[in-house]
Amino acid sequence: MDIEVGLKYCGGCNPAYDRKEIADIIGRQSGIKLKPYNENEISDVVLIISGCSVDCVNAWEYKSRCGTVLINSPEQVYEVIRQIRTLKNNIK
Amino acid sequence: MKTKEQYIESLRQLHPVIYCNGEKIESVVDHPMTRPHVNSAAMTYDLAFDPEYEDLMVTTSHLTGKKINRFTSVHQSTDDLVKKVKMLRMIGQKTGTCFQRCVGFDAMNSTFITTYKVDQECGTDYHERFKKYLEYVQENDLMIAGSMTDPKGDRSKKPGQQEDPDLYVHIVEKREDGIVVRGAKAHQTGMVNSHEMLILPTTNLGEEDKDYAVAAAIPVDAPGVVHIFGRQTNDQRRLTGDIDTGNSEYAIVGGETLTVLNDVFVPWDRVFMCGEYQYAQEYVETFAAYHRQNYGGCKVGLADVIIGATAAMAEFNGVPKASHIKDKLIDMINMSETMYNCSIACSCEGCKTPAGSYYVNTLLANTVKLNCTKYMYEISRLAHDIAGGFIATLPYEADYKNPETKEYIDKYLKANPDVPTEHRIRLARLIENMTGGTALAESMHGAGSPQAMKVMIYRESNMEHKKKLAKKLAKIDK
Hints:
The complex is a heterodimer of chains A (92) and B (478).
Chain A: E1 5-9, H1 19-30, E2 34-36, E3 43-49, E4 64-71, H2 77-91
Parallel strand pairs in A: 1-2, 1-3, 3-4
Helix pairs in contact in A: 1-2
Chain B: H1 4-12, E1 17-20, E2 23-25, H2 35-46, H3 54-57, E3 58-60, E4 67-69, H4 78-95, H5 102-122, H6 126-140, E5 144-147, E6 170-174, E7 178-185, E8 196-199, E9 214-219, E10 225-229, E11 257-267, E12 271-274, H7 280-294, H8 298-317, H9 323-348, E13 351-352, E14 358-359, H10 362-387, H11 397-401, H12 403-412, H13 421-435, H14 438-445, H15 450-460, H16 463-473
Parallel strand pairs in B: 1-10, 5-8
Antiparallel strand pairs in B: 1-2, 3-4, 6-7, 7-11, 8-9, 9-12, 10-11, 13-14
């Protein structure tokens, strides 16, 4: 079963890293297709990519079936992939 | 919300009277003098549809519950105030110049607060009128030119004392269906590529100045409105190529105008103040505080570009590791982030107004802009220091493109062998564009001149409290 991941970016005012590049890496490494978050289509997981440690996105505003995964640093990429895979396995 | 394309198309439907350098501009979208400013404002529309930036660009209307462009919103929390600053910084990083739309944003937010207060105390219905107008702006995602600054004439005299009564916009006729206004507004950012202007008073007023207490929304192409486009440093370079202008896509500052209102009729549903002179000062100060908040957003976005250009130029010049250059870059970052700190602080320390919207901390908002009047000059000075004098002596673009001279320029203006000469020239022109002339004057006088901030800072500081603190520690009884 494929997992649906809705991707939500912070506003990108002063990102400490390239958020889009990290999204691409997560997508490639996890083999999961990320699509832009759409409030009218609830996805399995919401992935929030914050450009810095402020984490200014109000995570509670974004609805999903299984949970929300946050990343605010490139160092968290593999942990985030692990979390998404765990959620994916839980769905199976 | 409008897309970038819809915004540009909507401008084609308007027919404002615009003069520029002795000619009439028929289409702001197609004329090379105005097109870059259209591009810059269009960025505020385009980014609202980009998932990477929508979190800052899009919000929810408190009037309709619909998703709207943040530039048409009324702040509903301190978080909104913070997001405004972050949004401005982010857009500034992309345009490298003014994107103009914040002025109307601030004019609408200050009008929301002031009309509520006037209605509460005077029994008028301006606030309800304004809310209807705001809903119209949000539904159509309009760009509003915030239109405050009058020409002012003799600065020692109040509006009613001027030799020429038109040096401040005033009401010349009240009719059953509306009012007629006359005067002019100066330094009007983004005016020619806005849909409408929201005029408001520019100074405190006395009873004798009652007719000058006027706020109203006017289409930019209303009968009687004439725009005279301002000349900027090196602006005609955009007519002859793309290298020498430095930022050919978005140009420099906000395409300001002198906008003349020759007996312009405004229907009552677009009038939001008409004679309530006693609220003019508070109106102006509210607008000014919101607008001064911005400078630690947009200018910091521009500073991010200047700092990046300067660091890249150090590499292009072959000296990226020189310790003094790193030290100067750190100074530039420190000043830039200090401005940002002030803007974030004045937003976090904002408060709820009786109208229900949120307003910045006035004292802290004024520190933002006062710092900006100094730091943008110092950041620019350091950029010049690091980049080198060649930013002021480069040959013409036409000579660079001329086969007879190109190879000399390529040969003798090369520095780091890994960097093409053209890249070095392009970066130098960008630094020149962003750090001199009109750009600097805008940092000084946009949102008010430094003395205006000093007056506010002193007024908002509790000096007696500070003196008491000192006296207590010094054990002085009185």
